Every structure is written in C-alpha cells, then in structure tokens.
Amino acid sequence: MQFGIFSVGDVTPDPTTGRTPTERERIKAMVAIALKAEEVGLDVFATGEHHNPPFVPSSPTTMLGYIAARTERLILSTSTTLITTNDPVKIAEDFAMLQHLADGRVDLMMGRGNTGPVYPWFGQDIREGINLAIENYALLHRLWREDVVDWEGRFRSPLQGFTSTPRPLDGVPPFVWHGSIRSPQIAEQAAYYGDGFFHNNIFWPADHTKRMVELYRTRYAHYGHGTPEQAIVGLGGQVFMRKNSQDAVREFRPYFDVAPVYGHGPSLEEFMEQTPLTVGSPQQVIEKTLSFREYAGDYQRQLFLMDHAGLPLKTVLEQIDLLGEEVVPVLREEFAKGRPANVPDAPTHASLLAGTRKETVA
C-alpha cells in the first residue's frame, strides 16, 4: 500500500490566534508539508486544484514541479484535477511534462470539484458537469495513447491530426484515479477504463463509502479488467493526534468547530462517530484506519488530510512526524497481513512500464 498526504490548500484563520496566513505563507507551507512527507517515509503528496478564495493551489503542476526538484522518492499527485473546466489537451501536456521532470513520479486524480462558480469562469455550464467529465476524459485518454488524434465532441473545438507534446515518459501515461464523493457515474467511468477509484472518505459514513467502492469493483470486473478484488481503490481520511487522546481532542476542537466545510454543525464527538475522522492517540488512528478495510476491502492507497482548518504549519509537521514514526509503519505491517496474493500493489510508473513490456513480449 501507499500512504501519504492530501491537501486542499485552504487559507483559513487560526481560530486560536485570529491570524490568517498570507497566500505566500500557505503555498510555502504546502511545500514544507510535502518535503516532510518524504522525510518521514511517506509515499505520496497530493494537492488540490481550486480557482477561488480561500484556496491557493490554482496551478498544481507548478507546485508539483517545484516539489519534484526537491525530492527523490515522493510520488506527486493531485487530489483534484478539474477534468470539467480544464482543457484536456492542456492536462495531457502539463502532466506529461511533469512526468518527464519528475522521472515518472507522477499520477493524478480526476474530479469535478465542489465550487459551482468555477464553471462559468472557464466557459462551461455546471449542469453539464458529468457530461464534461466523461467527454473530456475520453479525449485525454486518447491523447496519451495515440500519437495522432482526430477528435470532435460537444465541449471543445475539433482536433485534426493533433499530437500532444511531450509524449508520455517511456510511452506510459500517468496513472489516473477518478475521485468522487457521491457520483456513481464517476465510479462507472473509473471502472470502464480500468483506472483507479478514490473516495475522499472525509464527510460520509462507512455504508456510503462501501456502496461506492463495491459499485466500482463490480463494474471493474464487468469490463474485463480483473476480479473485483483486483480493482485499484484509494481512500482519504482525516486525523489529528497527540500522545494523549484527551490532549488531541482539546487542541483540535476549536479548529473543528469553525472548519470551512464541516464547522458549525455536529459536535466533534458526533462527527467522529459518524465519519472516518479520528482525533486521539496514534493507536486510535491505527485502529480506525485499519477498520477501513472492513468496508473497502484490500485497497492500494491511503491519504490523510492534515493541514485543514487553519492548523499552524508547526502543528501539521508534528502530526506528520507522528504519522511517519508511529502510525504508518504499523499500518504497513497490519494491512499486509492476510492480503491475498491476487490483490495488486498500487500502480507506479515502474510497474506500469514493466506491464507494458510484458504485453509487448507476449
């Protein structure tokens, strides 16, 4: 399994001090978080994509290219690439360029985003969100796999004899995850192409996540990519830790209460009971995360949200230290126990390249 961090890049006031970081501070903090993730032995750093305040990551490949130059092992990903409002030609070119610069340490997660106004800003209609996601990805999929593409669709100008440059590194496109919280059409899309399916696993109860993952696994097998158990699944999660669980709850509560997405709603205790959020000791985080397998099966990627709601950078880096030193080593060992031999590892550029070579020889 792969373990890592995903961020939405929100600029939120610290409720304990009232201070709001500048955009520059927040951008630099995201870089520091990625570097810390590699330092403590995590596998993945993923950034969101947003084009509105209070978020800063409007250009994920710029940020990831900078991080690529400062890391050696970390897989660089997105927690959302807006397949609905980005031109698929530009996505193809930007991520292929990043793939070359990062020596293959790149994948990405397609999503529709959760900000309605972004659609008209980029000349699109939110009512066409699902259709945009389906058509744009169909084009992107071809651009990475065909040297010359002729294309005509509803949402962009036609292409005639078009070649996207640079071509994917070693002829192997970046691995794609399709991220969805509530849309079965996106789980279907991931299954159709044999791509990965990622459920952010932050706000919804386990039974909802289970239904979405089971739908994807069933349809993955239907399209002939393998058994349901061989489908590629990723999950998110949110944690806050201190050695003593009471200290964790006391320290995190003011951040939870005013968090941009889930604040001013259920209590912290209610939210922890109803969702995957874990606030407590490292052992409690281990136990809650291991329980994800009960409803998602053996899966391939676990990402944690740790820098949300105005938490200061110093605190977030302390959290990542705890994650890397006390939590992930145990999770790696425990998730490996009883893992069936036919369950694949998380895809990497090296494994995808090896699979391509095997197919060529065969």
TrEMBL record:
InterPro entries for the chain: Bact_Lucif_Oxidored (IPR050766), LLM_FMN-dep_put (IPR023934), Luciferase-like_dom (IPR011251), Luciferase-like_sf (IPR036661)
Keywords: Monooxygenase, Oxidoreductase
One Pfam family it belongs to: Bac_luciferase
Domain Luciferase-like: 1-295
Ranges of biased composition (kind: Low complexity): 9-20
Recorded superkingdom: Bacteria
Location of the region described as Disordered in the Swiss-Prot/TrEMBL record: 1-21, 340-362
PANTHER family assigned to the protein according to its UniProt record, in alphabetical order: BLR5498 PROTEIN, LUCIFERASE-LIKE MONOOXYGENASE
Name of the featured protein: LLM class flavin-dependent oxidoreductase
